[in-house]
Amino acid sequence: MTDTPESPTPSKLPTPAEEMESLVNSPPKPRSRSTVAGESPLPTTAAEPDLLAAMTETDDFQHLSFLHLSRFGVRAASGQESRLGMSEGGILSGRADSPLNLLVLGSACLVMGIGLGLNIPILGWVGAIGALLAALRILAPSIGRALAKLISPRQWGQVFAVLGLGVALWGLVQLTGLADRWQYQWQMMNWDAVGALGEVFGALGQILIAIVAVYVAWRQYVISKDLTIQQNTITQQQTIDSYFQGISELVLDEEGLLEDWPQERAIAEGRTAAILGSIDAAGKAKIIRFLSRSRLLTPLKRDRRLGRAIFDGAGGYEEDREHGVRVIDLGVMLAKADLSGTDLRWVDLSEANLFRANLSYCDLFKANLSRCILYEANLRGADLKGTQLFYGPVATASPRSRTDPPNYRTGAHTGAVVEGANFSQVQRLSEEQRYYCCAWGGEKTRRTIPGGCEGIPNRLESPQPTAS
Known about the structure:
Number of helices: 12
Order of helices and strands: HHHHHHHHHHHH
Distance between the termini: 147 Å
Shape: elongated
Oligomer: single chain
Structural class: mainly alpha
Radius of gyration: 51 Å
């Protein structure tokens, strides 16, 4: 029985990938190729490079970037070399080791040498021109490849456009007669005046160089100053942190109870006085806030035998303004100190000596300044909302006295000494504070208090009422 040939089914048609794999795995030779589904068959007589180009134009073969084109006899030349004619066989083709090129170059050099040696100009010219052409013939491929790497085909067009623009401008200058005019102006120019003008510009250049040098030196100074300030700030903060740690270890025992034995207080006050004299206003404010919030500046009620602070039953220590003992007594540590523009909210500076201290533009919200010496202090622009200047009623309150003890019920001798202080432009000054400052500030202070002191008697000049 004769086998009947089966008709090909679509499932047995070779796929594009199978066709490409067969091309890669088989040796290159002319052969027919099955028609790819959906495409017209390629001619079997076409060259293999054309066959490969036709196949790679389809989307099915774009992913086969691993193909070795050399197996199909195709040279992988860049598009730029092809367009510039620098691929093999182009107009700039040539090799430096070509015997013909080397023979022509050597012969031309020999002819030029003979012409120069025998004083025959025609031979010299022929040899020189021949050597030049032969050398250019050898160097043309290398020069072309270098230019192809430096300048793209699109940039070549821009280069020629710039050259054309220059030629066009030169032609317009020649046609309009501007060249003759410029030449005439050039000949008629007073070169002595030009030389003098050049000297002027040279002097100006030297002045500008000197100005630039001064500016550079000034910038270096500013940068150096900023770096020094930053370094000093870091060093100061490290010093303050060490102080905090030392005071904390000094005033706390193993059980965590606040101590105030005389030797501990003396060492703590000595450390505080030393550091307050070596830091700036912001550092002083940090020290004061730390000591105040740690209750080290507040007079606390003490056990007379053990010297320990007594609890108030509400999670804190009980104050004793009349007989309490402070762990650290600031005394005169802040006299003439600069605390301007700092944050002193809620701090306890009672009984501190702030003689001629600079408290301008400080935030003194809820600060305790009772029995504080503010003689000739500067409080310009400070925020005095809630600041305690005295205890008791304002009508019977009076500044501290060297001889009389304070009476915290009537306010006698519990107030701050505000004589000669500057209260100009203070913020949020209450009526009681204004009355107290006008009554006990004297004429110099009364002139600086916002709102004036009209109708408020000057207690420093009039007889003082006796406190009951």
